[in-house]
Amino acid sequence: MKYQRILLKLSGEALSGPNGDIFDSVRLMQYAEEIKRVVNEGIQVAIVIGGGNIFRGSEAAAVGIERVQGDYMGMLATVINGMAIQGALEKIGLYTRLLSGIRMEQVCEPFIRRRAVRHLEKGRVVIFGAGIGNPYFTTDSTASLRAIEIEADVVLKGTRVDGVYTADPEKDRTATRYSTISFEDVYKKGLNVMDMTAFTLCKENDLPIIVFDMNKPGNLFKIVSGEEVGTLITMG
To answer: Hey, what domains does the chain have and what are their CATH numbers?
Structure first.
């Protein structure tokens, strides 16, 4: 296997159902099965999931809530999603730990780096909830920071598109996909991969990012096996 320890970043919206439901049980179990397949190969898996299917901190102002309060609400949404993916993973026989950037011992463990690494070494899937515990930071930033802290080999950003394109492929039919691209070229071309804080963290720590379609069965396994899937972003 090409990678031994991965940080998988998932969006909260990916869990939502087609009829506006917060959760799509079919999608949730599909993700769980994809993760189980790589865990069974001995790959250590950590997960960061967004909360957009429930609440986005950036939307707080629109409903009259101050930004800091809204960001904390968004962090709590990620814990709910973390519990959902935890339940799906445990349903199919995996051992998991949900670690939170905000202390809530009745629900999950507090984030302690050494403890997180030890869980991974024991074969448990580690889910990071509640962001980094501070407002003004996205779950992309959480994914980058936690990946660096646990010394992951790569950040895998699972999306609904199969990589990074020259333009938005859902709006521009002439857009073409990059198979590989450097951090520097992403900056120069103004491509939307992650928020700037998250992206810079990866660049400064030489941590590669792969953007891929998580909804296509088998893609996650192909990536950890070394196949070229999605777009690989490296120092170049």
So the answer is: 5-234 (3.40.1160.10)
